[in-house]
Automatic annotation (TrEMBL):
Its main location: Golgi. GO terms for cellular component: Golgi membrane. It is a single-pass type I membrane protein. Pfam families: Cys_rich_FGFR. This is Golgi apparatus protein 1. It comes from Danio rerio.
């Protein structure tokens, strides 16, 4: 040996006991050559070698006896040993035979199926054991690694001559920068890690656990003695299995590895992290798989490990390799330093941000992969810098955790039952985790610890920051991302947001939709898991909601509590110091818009409404239906659920864009009519108001119309659900309508107050101006759909089914149908419809159908008219040539309605308020509230008009009604009622005419003698009587005599029968030549009046006087009466004189 050392220039000297050699080597010597020379000079039988710790090892020469100790001239060769000669020549290439190190590596790394002789096994193991305990190698290490040792305090302090120094250098080999030292230690490592018994202290620390767990024999066996990687693998499996044990399990069923052995196992795993050759079990298990998947990946720096991890779930991966990889991954989960690349890449960042300096944490906790990930993720989320290399490593291991649930002991421990029941056979590519997420989301049946374990894993892996971490989601959504989100950089957090925005659209595929909702279910329960929102809102959350750091979680806060706090302050806080920043508010709105797509993405809503969802909404499974269902059953919900749904609905009223599905459906209308309000960053109810106003535009599709109407219906349940109404009228409601909650009741209360103040001409309106304006908007919106007036709708539900079953809701069509079938309605419904009509006649703007059909005509004729007088204006322009036929038809309908009851004609009611009780009290006494009088009062007033006994205002209004009804018989309800049989029988042709110009009335007059029904005959006679009072009441006669009136009666004002008297006098005057048609019509009228006088004699003196004064021949009649009176007077005088003379004669006698 001394000769050998001298050859290479070493100076050697024996120790005092002759057992330890010291040497000095020149720096220029190649350490690998030096190691090979030592190997060639090292023989099995050398004495003086010590085992680790310095104790003499007895019997270490077993197997060395009988072998030549003498060295050949070229040194001792393993290949020349009789025990191994045959195996070497069979297994190892010839060029390696002269290199003991190459032969050693060749025999160590042989294929599983290649056997070597037992004697050779034993020879190799003793040879390697001697090497690790030979002080000469330590001496070489001292010289080769001199500068490195001085730089590593732990190694510099190790006692020399006991084997500790080389072991220490191996431990710290990642810190060795000196090339020669690194090469030397690397080769020594490949020798040491081929057998657990060669690692300093390992056997002493794990002897008991090996025996207890039956991981192999401590004593030398007969086969494969130099490759004891299976023993370490057995211990590693036991270690990771220990983490999956239930702590509540009895001691009898549990096992626990000693702490000293646990540390030794983890240290072995850590030291073998850079080169997969050093993990002997994994090396042999994955040797073929390495060739298949990672053939071109060089060994070192953990690259082969990572390559194999990435292909773990490939179909070609062997089960044996897959198990070995899983074991190593589980060790990495327990201690991140077992991953060479991760530990190296993140070491500076860990030190910089003191992630391994947390004194409050146990050392084992700090080493866990989850702790490293959470700590560094928190750093990234705080906006601080973590090296790109470290972030890349973190991304790989976050993806690894999401792919394989079995790497998370908490999931294995707490979700075992759920996995067996619902998710068996879905192990790979993250499918088991997504299955658990689906079970939690859809059924809510996960046990609390399992739910918490899943939530913790999502926080550790943080897939919200990069969707690629979730392999199942990535694969399912790849096509959607390529089409809908291609404008966003790959890996950007906005990808998830983009996917949510396309949820339930044509671009979304079902598998992606499911995976996305499963992940979002858990992200929604922790506001920090949305990285964009966390970045924008972390300061606001800390200031307002008292939150902690990203990786600190309060056990006292329920899921979603922080986000609830943020959105409350985003929408409701008016105090300057409590407002959210603009950026944060924008993010809160974004999240609200996305999560409104599914009630399960609102933790508070799902938690409080779980029972109600099952009770009321179990069949509502389509997108958005569950929330609509809860809103529909608001009154039936449990108090807690009702509060949450109410609060969310209140938010929607302020920002309807939260209803993403509705906004999508209404996109055409928004683009055409509401784009200005939609573009506003802050929506205060304007968008919904715009959608309601344009609800019947051609761009409005069915989905949008249904959604808008539904929201209107929900708003009726509580006035707080109408944001603009609430903000405008909240003070008025508190003052005038306290304790009223339903919107419809609040509207009625406030409108009644406004009406009373107006009618009483109060000096000051009690309802504020801003509230009155918004109140008008609400009233107009409610008039569009009967369902928006719940009391009316409920009262008429059965009538709608019977009479309006095929009529579509909206556009006030159902209300119009009820009006047309008013005579057939149930009493309660009839009363409600009558009240509605009374309100509409007082305020025509509330008559939706009238305003819709006559919209253009109102602009043309009534643009400057007060809203209360719109119908009056339309009536005045009804017969204009420019009047739209449809509008004219609608005006006629309203006139017919008005003439059924004076209460439905506010102008008439006001003008005749003194005349009605004076002349028609008997009719009022028999009338019932909310039931039409079928024109009786108006008929009564018509008769008094003929008698010329009405006040001037009332007479003017009755004159208008008479003129209108004379042109169209339908405007005379009493005539229609009494002559319902006679009109079709006698005047069918006239009724069929497209436009009514008095033909039906003229037909009835002409056929007066043919009328059988006494009531009808009386009505026709009344018409004749009324026509005496004013020629305008007789349109046929007026048309025939228009020229004669102009020539003969131009100076005579109309009314009070004056023009009719003028024409009658002209008829009697032979000097006047009337138009033939006028003369004929006048003669017919005289005959009719004569017949009327016979058929219907005066009922009393007043009636007789009225007939005389209204008669066209009243001058003749009055002159005759005067002559009679004079004659009677003269006769009286004559009789008186005669009587007086006779009386005087009698006295004289």
């Amino acid at each position: 040996m001394s000769a050998f050392l001298a050859v290479v220039g070493f100076v050697i000297s024996p120790s005092e006991d002759g057992g330890v050699w010291t040497c000095a080597a020149p720096a220029a010597v190649d350490p690998l050559l030096l190691l090979d020379l030592f190997l060639s000079r090292t023989q099995i039988g050398d004495r003086g070698h010590r085992k680790c710790g310095g104790e003499r090892r007895a019997g270490q020469e077993r197997g060395g006896a009988g072998r030549g100790v003498g060295a050949a001239s070229g040194g001792w060769k393993l290949a020349e040993e009789a025990a191994c000669r045959e195996d070497v020549s069979r297994i190892c290439p010839k060029h390696s035979w002269n290199n003991n190190l190459a032969v050693l590596e060749c025999l160590q790394d042989r294929k599983d199926e290649t056997e070597i002789a037992a004697d050779c096994n034993h020879l190799l193991w003793n040879y390697k054991l001697n090497l690790t305990q030979d002080p000469k190698f330590e001496s070489v290490a001292v010289e080769v690694c001199k500068s490195t040792i001085s730089g590593i305090k732990e190694c510099a302090a190790e006692e020399r001559g006991k084997g500790y120094l080389v072991s220490c250098l191996v431990d710290h080999r990642s810190n060795i920068s000196e090339y020669q030292c690194n090469q030397y230690i690397t080769k020594m490592t490949s020798i040491i890690y081929s057998d657990y018994r060669l690692i300093c202290g390992f056997m002493d620390k794990c002897r008991d656990d090996i025996n207890k767990l039956f991981c192999g024999s401590v004593n030398t066996g007969e086969k494969d003695l130099h490759s004891q990687g299976e023993v370490i693998a057995c211990l590693e499996k036991a270690l990771v299995a220990e983490q999956d044990q239930d702590p509540d399990q009895g001691l009898a069923g549990r096992f626990s590895i000693q702490d000293s052995c646990r540390k030794a196992i983890m240290r072995v795993a850590e030291l073998s992290s850079d080169d997969f050759h050093l993990d002997r079990h994994l090396f042999f298990s994955c040797r073929d798989d390495r060739e298949r998947f990672c053939e071109h990946i060089p060994a070192g720096e953990g690259k082969v490990y990572k390559c194999l991890f990435n292909h773990k779930f490939e179909e070609g991966m062997s089960d044996k390799c897959k198990d070995a990889l899983s074991t190593r991954q589980k060790l990495i989960v327990q201690d991140y330093k077992v991953s060479y690349s991760l530990a190296k890449a993140c070491k500076p960042d860990l030190r910089k941000y003191r992630c391994n300096m947390d004194t409050a944490m146990p050392r084992a906790r700090e080493a866990k992969l989850s702790y490293l990930l959470l700590c560094l993720e928190a750093v990234v989320h705080r906006g601080q810098t973590v090296s790109g290399e470290c972030q890349g490593e973190m991304l790989d291991y976050r993806r690894m955790l999401m792919e394989d649930y079995s790497l998370s002991p908490e999931i294995v421990l707490h979700c075992r039952g759920e996995i067996d029941t619902h998710c068996s056979g879905l192990h790979h590519k993250g499918r088991t985790l997504h299955c658990l997420m689906r079970v939690s989301r859809e059924k809510g049946i996960l046990e609390g610890h399992c739910q918490k374990a899943l939530q913790t894993l999502i926080q550790e892996t943080d897939p919200g920051a990069d969707y690629r971490i979730d392999r199942a989601l990535n694969e399912a959504c790849e096509s959607v991302i390529q089409t809908a989100c291609k404008h966003i950089r790959n890996g950007d957090p906005m990808i998830l947001s983009c996917l949510m925005e396309h949820l339930y659209t044509d671009k979304m595929v079902e598998d992606c939709e499911q995976r996305l909702l499963e992940l979002q279910y858990f992200i929604s329960r922790d506001w920090k898991l949305d990285p964009i929102m966390y970045k924008k809102c972390q300061n606001d959350a800390a200031r307002i909601c008292h939150t902690h750091g990203w990786n600190e979680t309060s056990e006292f806060l329920p899921p979603g509590a922080v986000f609830s706090c943020l959105y409350r302050h985003a929408y409701r806080t008016e105090m300057q110091g409590r407002r959210l920043s603009r950026d944060c508010k924008t993010e809160v709105q974004r999240i609200l818009h996305q999560r409104a797509l599914d009630v399960k993405l609102d933790p508070e809503l799902q938690q409080r409404c779980m029972t109600d969802l099952g009770k009321w909404c179990s069949e509502k499974t389509e997108a958005g239906q569950e929330l609509e269902c809860l809103q529909d059953h608001l009154e039936d919900l449990a108090p807690g659920c009702r509060d949450v749904v109410g609060n969310l609905t209140e938010l929607e009223s302020e920002d309807i864009q939260i209803e993403a599905l509705l906004i999508r459906a209404c996109e055409p209308v928004i683009q055409s009519y509401c784009h200005e309000v939609a573009d506003n960053q802050i929506d205060t109810g304007d968008l919904m108001e715009c959608l309601v106003a344009n609800k019947h535009q051609k761009e409005m599709n069915e989905k949008c119309a249904v959604g808008v109407t539904h929201f209107q219906l929900i708003q009726m349940k509580d006035f707080r659900f109408s944001y603009k109404f609430k903000m405008a009228c909240k003070e008025d409601v508190l003052k005038l309508c306290p304790n009223i909650k339903k919107k419809v009741d609040v509207v009625i209360c406030l409108s009644t107050t406004v009406r009373n103040d107006t009618l009483q001409e109060a000096k000051e309106q009690r309802v504020s101006m801003k509230c009155r304006k918004q109140l008008r908007v609400e009233e107009l919106e409610m008039s569009e759909d009967i369902r928006l007036e719940p009391e009316l709708y409920e009262s008429c539900r059965q009538d709608i089914k019977q009479h309006c079953q095929n009529v579509v809701f909206g556009n006030a069509q159902v209300i119009e149908c009820l009006k047309e079938n008013k005579k057939h309605l149930t009493q309660h419904c009839h009363q409600k419809v009558f009240r509605l009509q009374e309100t509409e006649m007082m305020d025509p703007e509330l008559d939706f159908q009238l305003m819709r059909v006559c919209k253009q005509m109102i602009r043309r004729f009534c643009s400057d008219t007060d809203a209360k007088n719109l119908l009056q204006c339309l009536k005045q322009n009804k017969n204009s040539e420019l009047m739209d036929p449809k509008c004219k038809q609608m005006i006629t309908k309203r006139q017919i309605t008005q003439n059924t009851d004076y209460r439905l004609n506010p102008v008439l009611r006001k003008a005749c308020k003194a005349d009605i009780p004076k002349f028609c009290q008997n009719i009022l006494n028999n009338a019932r509230d909310d039931n039409e009088l079928e024109g009786q009062v108006i008929s009564c007033l018509k008769l008094k008009y003929a008698d010329q006994r009405l006040s001037s205002d009332c007479e003017a209004q009755i004159s208008v009604i008479l003129q209108e009804s004379a042109l169209d018989y339908r405007l005379d309800p009493q005539l229609q009622l009494q002559c319902s049989e006679e009109i079709p029988r006698l005047c069918a042709e006239e009724v069929a005419a497209q436009e009514q110009t008095g033909q039906v009335e003229e037909c009835l007059k002409v056929n007066l003698l043919k009328i059988n029904h006494e009531g009808c005959k009386k009505e026709v006679l009344n018409i004749l009587k009324e026509s005496k009072a004013d020629i305008f009441v007789d349109p046929v006669l007026h048309t025939a005599c228009a020229l004669d009136i102009k020539h003969q009666c131009a100076a005579i004002p109309p009314g009070k029968g004056r023009q009719m008297s003028c024409l009658m006098e002209a008829l009697q005057d032979k000097r006047v030549r009337l138009q033939p048609e006028c003369k004929k019509r006048l003669q017919d009228r005289i005959d009719m009046w004569s017949y009327a006088a016979k058929v219907a004699p005066a009922e009393g003196f007043s009636d007789l006087a009225g007939q005389v004064f209204t008669s066209p021949a009243k001058s003749y009649i009055l002159s005759m009466l005067a002559m009679c009176v004079v004659l009677l007077f003269l006769m009286g005088l004559l009789c008186g004189r005669i009587t007086k003379r006779v009386t005087q004669e009698l006295k004289d006698r």
